[in-house]
Task: structure prediction
Amino acid sequence: MLCTLNFFYLFPFTIMEQKRISFSKNPSFFQNSCNFLSLGSFYKEPIKRSFWRKKNLKVEMMAKKVVFGEESRKSLVNGINAVADAVKITLGPKGRNVVLERSFGAPQVINDGVTIARDIELNDPLENTGARLLQEVASKTDLKAGDGTTTSTVLTQSIVNQGIKAVASGVNPLALKRGIEKTCKILIQEVKKNAVPCNGIEDIRNIATIAAGGNQEIGRIISTAFEKVGENGSTTVEESQSLQDEVDFTEGMELDRGYISPYFVKDMERQIAELTNPRIIVTDKKITSVQELVPLLEMVVRSKEPILIVAEDITGEALSTLVVNKMRGVLDVCAIRAPGFGERKKAYLEDIAILTGATYIAEEAGLSLDTVTIDQLGKANRVVTAKEACTIIADGTNQENVSKRIEQIRKQVENTDSDFDREKGEERIARLGGGIARIKVGAATETELKDKKLRYEDAINSTKAAIQLGITPGGGSTLVNLIKKIPEIQESLLDEEEKLGAGIIGKALEAPILQIAQNSGQEGEVVLDRCKNLEFGEGYNAATDTYENLLECGVIDPAKVTCWALENSCSIASMVLTTEALVVEIPEKNKPTEADMNDLPGESYM
Result:
């Protein structure tokens, strides 16, 4: 009786030729077959190589270094201080810049706290862990509020340095942590209660100017952009080839899809197809047969209205029929492909349907083109279609449904962790809300361009935050005013060590204004002592070196930024204080290989 044996020779990326060998149950026959295989040069080398690889397969784990107690906390504090000292010199209207080396291209000169923090990596792995914790504070504040990263960094440094001293003196770190957290919650509620609603373009201009480091031109451009596009509009920042900053506005819903056929063009000079008061049909189907379109086209011809068709694609006789009727003057029509890809395409089509009041014709909804009625078609004031873009200007009759849709998209944006999904969600809100403003940043050099672009982004994020939760006095005066609340909070706490945690927060609230004064060339303690005796809304204006009503003179901060700066700094700082052990990888030294060794002495220096 014969059996079959399959030999496979497997390598990382290829499967060697499969050979089928027959042998009997006779052991000697099987032995001879194996000897035959071992003699063949084709089989010998793969088998040897395969076995050699299996014998040398080895997995190595990196060794870890463990430090305990005071040494672990000291290393974390050193790392935090290294990052904070580099970041805090940018705070305030007279803050300085930081130069970041780049492995390729020109060095970057910037004033943005989170960018500086992310760029720092320390040689000591223990201290680098502390640096990464502070980077987390700055990144979280930037993600949630869009600005205030330098303030949160300064607060974290102050809380950690004071808290470490308390822990070293024998205070229970867990009780300290509870006191910090309870105080933080009360202070955030106080900030929200004292916030003033952001009213008018003047407040937006002031917020943008402060966030951009006192650059009034940036404040003016951003306030103009927000005034044009409204609350639901979108403002984006792009790089420009010119030397001047410019703003481009797009009215209505802009889609990145143009006409399917150039025969739809009406204005030959501008190469656009413009429809006035058109009907709009929105479907996710690919239209190839003219029979699907006949009932729809007959309806439109009877009503003598233009029509815009938004579909997956239109090809074959369906497209030919539309073009012929367009050229003969029987039908005023234009067709575009659906924007987006995958699941996002469906969302875009639904947005268009809601904006225009159309019914979304989809197979999953059980609707087909040959059963469409005139009531299922949408309406718009004007549709302008170019080669690669289409703008739909709605008539405003479906504003209630549009508002509900915008609210729904906002909730999706809030719940997503993806920056890409968040960006696309905000873009959809802007398309539904009425317009998009594109700020094109120009500069003489690439270094200046990158710095200006970061300032614009910070200013736009601050403005959005101010619109959401209102504004508070800037220049660190809001945090100084919160110090008056600390004794009241300490009285409400029963544990003495928790009271000490509240006191640490009270002392940390002084850090931002001290740093702003120091960056302005003033004595921080003198400025702080003067501000403590002022009423809410009054404070130190570092730009003019005067004490005045900050709300009236335009030195304001978004309440949302202040709240997130407080929350994130207290969160990370309190966790650092409870640290008792630190585990890091021991960096492995690279051993010189034979390829690295030179034949001649001193050749490596040539």
Summary: The chain has 22 helices and 24 strands. The longest helix spans residues 446-469.
